[in-house]
Amino acid sequence: MALVGKKAPAFSAGAVINGEEIVENFNLDQYLGKKNVVLFFYPKDFTFVCPTELHAFQSKLAEFEKRDTVVIGCSTDTEETHLAWLMTPKAEGGIESVTYPIIADASKTISLNYGVLAGEYSYDPETNLWSFDGAPVAYRGTFLIDKEGVVRHESINDLPLGRNIDEYLRILDAQIHVEKFGEVCPANWEEGKEAMQATNEGVATYLSNN
After folding, report:
1. Phi, psi of 11 (to 5 degrees)
2. Are 198 and 183 within 8 A, CB to CB?
C-alpha cells in the first residue's frame, strides 16, 4: 500500500545523532510543524553502494537545510553498528563525517510499516513465525514527509540500485512551490521554470508556451 497522502507511520527507536551520540526514543514528532523530513532507508552498514549514498546525502545536506528539511537515514542495523561505521574513515569504506541522524531498526518494524522490508515472514498453521523469505534488510526507500507529517513522495529502489540525490531536491522544490503558489508542477519541472494552474486553461497555456 502506498503511503503518499497519508500520515507517516510513527515510531520510536534508537538512533545515532551528530555522528557520535546514541539516543533512545528518536521519533519524527519533534519535526511536526517545524521541518520537512527526507527519511531514507538503506540495506546495511559496512556494505558497498550504501556508503556512497550516505555520503551523497551528506554532501547535499546544506541544500536540504536551505529548504527547511532534515535528512534522516535508517537501516536494520543496531545503534552500535551505526556508530562503528561512523567511526570508520571514508577511505576505508566508512561514513565518518556524516552528521544527520541514523535510525536503528533492529526489530525491522519501521521497515515493515513503511513497506520497504526486502522480504516477508512466513507463519505455520498455528500462526507462529516460521521463516523469513527474502533478505531481512531494507530496500532503498525514500520518503518526503511534509511539516504536517504527511508523506508527499515515496520511491523504492531494489538493493543494487543507488539513488540520485538531486532528484529529491527537485521534488522538494516542487512541493514547496505548490504550497507557496498553489500551482502544479508539470513534467521535468525544476525551480525557476514555469509551473501552471490546475485548470484546462492553465494546461493549454502551458502547453502552448512549451
Report:
1. -160, 165
2. yes
Question: Distance of CA 33 to CAs 14, 17, 30, Å?
Answer: 23, 21, 9
Q: Which of 38, 50, 116, 144 is catalytic?
A: 50
Statement to judge: residues 119 and 129 lie in one domain: yes
**Half-sphere exposure at residue 140, Cβ-oriented, CA atoms within 13 angstroms:** 16
Q: How many CB atoms lie within 10 A of CB 128?
A: 7
CB burial of residue 67 (10 Å; 0-12, 13-18, 19+): middle
Q: What is the pLDDT of residues 154-181, one digit of tens each?
A: 999 999 999 999 999 999 999 999 999 9
Count of positions (residues) in the chain:
210
Residues 127 and 176 in one domain: no
Domain that holds residue 179: 164-210
3-state DSSP assignment of residue 167: helix
Give the chain's domain count.
2
**36-41/151-157 β-pairing:** unpaired
Q: Tens digit of pLDDT for each residue in 178-187?
A: 999 999 999 9
Q: Is 185 exposed, middle or buried (0-12, 13-18, 19+ CB in 10 A)?
A: buried
**Is 185 labeled as catalytic in the residue annotation?**
no
